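Ligand: flavin mononucleotide. Inputs:
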Amino acid sequence: MEETSHEALWQHVRPERVVWAVAEHEGKRSICPLGWKMRTSGSPPMMAISVAPTRYTHELIVASGAFVLAWPGRGLAEATLFCGTRSGRDTDKFAHTGLTPLPARHIQAPLIKECVANLECRVATQMTSGDHTIFAGEILATWIADQPGQILCTIDHAEGYEFLLEKGGYRFGVVKA
Ligand SMILES: Cc1cc2nc3c(=O)[nH]c(=O)nc-3n(C[C@H](O)[C@H](O)[C@H](O)COP(=O)(O)O)c2cc1C
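Predicted complex:
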């Protein structure tokens, strides 16, 4: 066992599934790719996400009290990079990516048609965690694509993953079928 820096360590604990937080308030919306998320309760079903206060999506979640989580599949690596490196403050991410918003059942934020799965969350509680905010949301509805497919991951150089795209410090792939 050798002590290492925490940055170096994360290279060894991938893959990490990517999920998009989608939020909307008063007609403004954004898509924020996230690596940091987890299930936190079975009854009621809940998920938590960690979002930096600098993200426009953070502002929209606080204002609306809700968010959609949408899991991108293998065809959405470029869209993930685009949405994850620009802010919805000055970019219409739906227009640029051609992604299709679908009405959610309980909240304003849209589902995304091209994603493998979508779920609707209402913020139940939030807390500051260093330079991020953890939003824990109660899951109100869950949706799955007709042909779900694999979920996009950030990967390292280990075997077992199908490499898809490397750009801007991110390396994307899916688990080999
Ligand atoms: C693969 C990937 C994972 C990311 N994970 C997170 C995360 O867990 N939390 C976070 O706050 N930002 C994360 N980001 C950065 C945001 O997606 C990025 O800052 C985005 O442009 C914010 O958009 P917004 O300003 O429209 O909300 C990630 C980006 C990528 C590409």
